[in-house]
Amino acid sequence: MLGAEGITVWAIIGFLLAAYSVIGNDSIQTLGTFIASNQKTKWYYLWAFAALILIGVLSLSYFGSGIGDIASGRLARIPVIEIKWYHALGPVVLVLLTRFGVPVSTSLLVLSSFASSVTFSDILLKSAIGYGIAAVVAYTLWVVIFKWDNKKNPVLPHNEPIWRVFQWCSTGFLWFTWLSHDIANIAVFLPRALSVTQFFMVLAVFVIGLAYIFWMRGGKIQHIVMEKMHTNYLRSATIIDLCYGIILFVFKEINNIPMSTTWVFIGLLSGRELAMYTRMSEYKFKDIFPIVGKDMLRLLFGLAVSILIAVAIQNPQFFVDFFK
Hints:
Blueprint: H1 9-30, H2 32-36, H3 43-65, H4 89-99, H5 106-111, H6 117-145, H7 160-182, H8 184-187, H9 196-215, H10 223-226, H11 234-254, H12 261-279, H13 285-314, H14 316-322
Helix pairs in contact: 1-4, 1-9, 3-7, 3-9, 6-11, 6-12, 7-11, 11-12, 12-13, 13-14
């Protein structure tokens, strides 16, 4: 137990499931290329680097907010309600989908149980815009830099240490920005104001969960990154992380409405993949469609599940009448 009055058993269960599923599912977005391009580095060095940033971001939010908030203000439009058993449906489904390596939007799937229809529509709209902008930006960028960011033009050995530093910096920036967005998907099960004891217990759960992700080298969901072209190359991984981090940072500064970072990440990879296949004359559109189309179908599947969960929780009578 977290040991705080007013925190139900279902809130604790929901928090633990959300922590496991959100970090497990979304690790590919921020840490996937980092893991893929540092396969020769011991997993605990990578974990220590990510854990220090995690501790810094959560501490900055917690102590900087003045009210013990770890969600960076992302839950301002989500009402505080008593957590019931059905609020854990989102994380449970997310755990199952993660086990099968399916990337879905944690923001839509988890927050759909708490958000009103208006807020849910705002989250969905912001996520869709993020997907489109990320795809366009990535396509434009990689059409221009394809010949430079290509395995036929590898990083020279004497430049590799410089690119390694760039990559760790870009990953750190991306990890910081992502945490500012997606911690809300876990913190929604907790009080908006945590005590100091609660904060350190929550922090311990995150750090341990992060260690498991690095020990598993990303787990089954990592194949979403590995199947894309050149994502395990040092320079490519650095540019992907930096581009993704900048896009998330811009959306973070626009407003405090949560959004699906998964949609932005898949849009970025899809736009990049399409650009690279466009520049390679020996490939045709039919060669890329299975990869890009498959990711889009996964996102739409996750969206459908999110909507069903939201309707079931907020309008249970709808299903009662439907099955009469």
